[in-house]
Hints:
Contributes to the regulation of the Wnt signaling pathway. Down-regulates CTNNB1-mediated transcriptional activation of target genes. May be involved in neuron differentiation. The protein is an alpha/beta fold.
Amino acid sequence: MAELQEVQITEEKPLLPGQTPETAKEAELAARILLDQGQTHSVETPYGSVTFTVYGTPKPKRPAIFTYHDVGLNYKSCFQPLFQFGDMQEIIQNFVRVHVDAPGMEEGAPVFPLGYQYPSLDQLADMIPCILQYLNFSTIIGVGVGAGAYILSRYALTHPDTVEGLVLINIDPNAKGWMDWAAHKLTGLTSSIPEMILGHLFSQEELSGNSELIQKYRNIITHAPNLENIELYWNSYNNRRDLNFERGGEMTLKCPVMLVVGDQAPHEDAVVECNSKLDPTQTSFLKMADSGGQPQLTQPGKLTEAFKYFLQGMGYMASSCMTRLSRSRTASLTSAASIDGSRSRSRTLSQSSESGTLPSAPPGHTMEVSC
């Protein structure tokens, strides 16, 4: 009896009727270019429709970078300077990106009808699983600013297995107290909604200086065709619940976290307090000099470099070439909580804005960094 031989058959992608291998390759290339330019999708959720834009193609065994913007902005006005920065290209070549626009914040969004009940920040967080299910993505690295940082944190508390890391800029995890409410109401009597939002986004020093950046964003918000929608998002942010972070407790972020705030940001105290409530072995604290209220707009280079170190600490981009920050290693490093060297878990790194050095350390350290 003849000896049987095992034959492996490799299945190739089927061609469409009348399609040659050459045209199939051209179609695949065109589709890839289209993905790199960004494709916008909308998905229905229990709390309404949400729009998001996807850049790049999914990478095997890699999470998606998932962004969520602050009040008064959309994904472009919040993140475009950061993700278009030259050194950021090395990162975005290695990860697919998903940029979410909060409902009614996307470009060309119609104004919601009078009496429309805008989702709470908790409900906005509950929309995220619908997006990931639509895209068939299993895990993310979240990058959020202000209200977006709160939303991603809320999502991470309820879906910890799907979040590999978080970069939280200007996060305020606390609900408004009575004194905050009184101040907010008093400010509302003398200031317009755009001015209140600008005071949320930028420091008073920046607003007084009235730089070209401030003029640009004042114009964007003041003349926004969807200003009524922006006010609804603003109201949801001011009605947020306390995240109840507790160091060592159940209510905490279980993934690596990088907290970022500008040295003159309106939310500096809130971010410092948030840092004190999170696991020090999982949290890095980055305080950026000369960055004001929106470091992703004013210091995209420094934030990009910090993001690279953060990804390296998570085990990604191990061969990444560090550029402007790593060239000048003039840091003063002191241990903030080390009785003996083997138990050192908290470090403080003080830097000038010229040196801008960051340590290549795993997420097992809480670092206060001024760069």
